[in-house]
Amino acid sequence: MNKNIVTIGGSSSKTSINKVLAEYTAGLVKGVELTKLDLNNFNLPLFSIDLENEFGINDEAKKLNEIIESADGFVISLAEHNGAYSTAFKNAFDWLSRINGKVWRDKPMLLLSTSPGERGGQSVLDIALSRFPYMGGNIIGNLSFPSFYDNFVEGEIVNSDLKLELNKLVVELEKAL
Ligand SMILES: Cc1cc2nc3c(=O)[nH]c(=O)nc-3n(C[C@H](O)[C@H](O)[C@H](O)COP(=O)(O)O)c2cc1C
């Protein structure tokens, strides 16, 4: 059976460029099934310890956790909001961490981020690079993809250096699966 790659765009935007980048990158991985996760499909309340104490773990968080559990690997691209995770991603991450602290199950992961800016989402990427390894994150490769709208046009990477870099990461993920 083919390995299952779960893609996550760390954003709640309907037109998320991070979702686009995660799905594009995972689409380059040979011989795998893709499960394209959209955070908008999970009706998660804002995490609160009081909610958890009163009602237990939210059912939507359990549903999300089952998809994470089914993954053989991940391609995640994080949106950067004020230098950090988007609220939607952080909320999902917090709920997931209450089910299993090893959120990412030591499964191989490509960790990306992008934004319209020249640094891409380097700040949020740095946050995740320092945190995910404590949460079962097995990060095979990472890239902050800069100036998304200049470098990704009509569904394709138009900057040859970036294309090469991303392809190298994909090969590393294929080897790790
Ligand atoms: C509240 C907010 C804060 C933002 N902060 C940053 C930032 O710190 N760095 C950055 O490069 N872009 C920032 N942006 C622009 C986002 O990178 C841009 O909206 C991008 O499309 C987000 O990714 P998404 O399309 O996957 O949601 C911010 C956008 C919003 C709405």
Number of helices: 7
Give the N-to-C terminal Cα separation: 13 Å
Strand content: 15-25%
Query: How much is the radius of gyration in Å?
Result: 16 Å
The structural class is alpha/beta
Helix-strand pattern: EHEHHEEEHEHEHEEH
- Helix proportion: 40-55%
Unreliable segments (pLDDT under 50, ≥5 consecutive)? none
What are its keywords?
two-stranded antiparallel ribbon, single chain, 5-stranded parallel sheet, alpha/beta, globular, 177 residues
Task: Characterise the protein shown here.
β1, α1 and β2 form a beta-alpha-beta unit. The chain is of the alpha/beta class. α3 crosses α4. The chain is globular. The chain has helices at residues 17-26, 49-55, 59-69, 87-99, 122-131, 148-151, 160-176; strands spanning 3-10, 32-37, 73-78, 80-81, 84-85, 108-114, 138-145, 152-153, 156-157.
Topology overview:
Layout: E1 3-10, H1 17-26, E2 32-37, H2 49-55, H3 59-69, E3 73-78, E4 80-81, E5 84-85, H4 87-99, E6 108-114, H5 122-131, E7 138-145, H6 148-151, E8 152-153, E9 156-157, H7 160-176
Parallel strand pairs: 1-2, 1-3, 3-6, 6-7
Antiparallel strand pairs: 4-5, 8-9
The protein binds flavin mononucleotide.
What is the compact description of this entry?
This protein has about 180 residues and is α/β, with parallel strands linked by helices. It has helices at about 15-25, 50-55, 60-70, 85-100, 120-130, 150, 160-175; strands spanning about 5-10, 30-35, 75-80, 80, 85, 110-115, 140-145, 150-155, 155.
